[in-house]
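[recover] target loaded
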């Protein structure tokens, strides 16, 4: 049975007070606005696909703590490394221990891609929805903006026309995985739509994917 929106809002409000300043300082696309949008996508998917709303909402709102650690430490930080901090953040929320463990599970496995080195292995709907919600915010118009932001922060060129566009096995452990922003959109973001876990997310991804295809085509056409 879904929990009431009032209880969810209470959880999110408590968490936002703890993390808003930390994430507002992040300039690479993994900021508080991304967390809010991911939360909205996750709750919308839950309404259609089911699952524990409390687990889904909370996991989606704090899933990127490892990104802050990564920015601070200047190295790849796996989501699993953030779990001690996650447990600290949710310690005083009115949740069962099973829910708290499930939130950590969702966050640990949310960065899996079937076209990457770490294939999707999870089957619980809560983690699958978190994966989809996070990926929905990585594509479309906002996804393009975030990609430019992230690559600029990591000193990755916007486009290198001398290197053909490719789609190879994606490796999340590389902070700047592709040689340019446009290559990253082509190699990762354009593939997310067809690899969404849920039917609802695949439908939501269609228009976003078409926009990105048009963007890549226009950049390639207009660059020279």
């Amino acid at each position: 049975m879904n929990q009431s929106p009032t209880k969810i809002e209470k959880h999110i409000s408590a968490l936002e007070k703890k993390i808003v300043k930390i994430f507002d300082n992040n300039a690479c696309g993994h900021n508080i606005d991304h967390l809010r949008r991911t939360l909205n996508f996750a709750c919308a998917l839950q309404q259609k696909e089911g699952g524990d709303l409390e687990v889904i909402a909370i996991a989606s709102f704090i899933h990127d703590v490892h990104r802050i650690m990564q920015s601070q430490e200047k190295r790849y930080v796996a989501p699993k490394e953030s779990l001690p901090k996650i447990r600290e953040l949710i310690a005083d929320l009115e949740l069962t221990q099973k829910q708290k463990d499930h939130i950590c599970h969702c966050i640990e496995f949310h960065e899996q891609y079937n076209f990457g080195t770490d294939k999707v292995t999870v089957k619980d709907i809560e983690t699958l929805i978190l994966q989809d919600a996070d990926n929905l915010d990585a594509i479309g118009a906002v996804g393009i903006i975030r990609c430019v932001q992230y690559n600029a922060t990591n000193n990755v060129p916007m486009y290198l026309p001398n290197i053909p566009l490719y789609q190879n096995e994606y490796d999340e452990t590389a902070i700047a995985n592709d040689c340019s922003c446009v290559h990253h959109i082509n190699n990762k973001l354009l593939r997310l739509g067809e690899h969404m876990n849920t039917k609802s997310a695949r439908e939501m991804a269609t228009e976003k994917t078409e926009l990105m295809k048009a963007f890549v085509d226009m950049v390639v056409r207009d660059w020279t």
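[recover] notes: The chain has one domain: 5-222.
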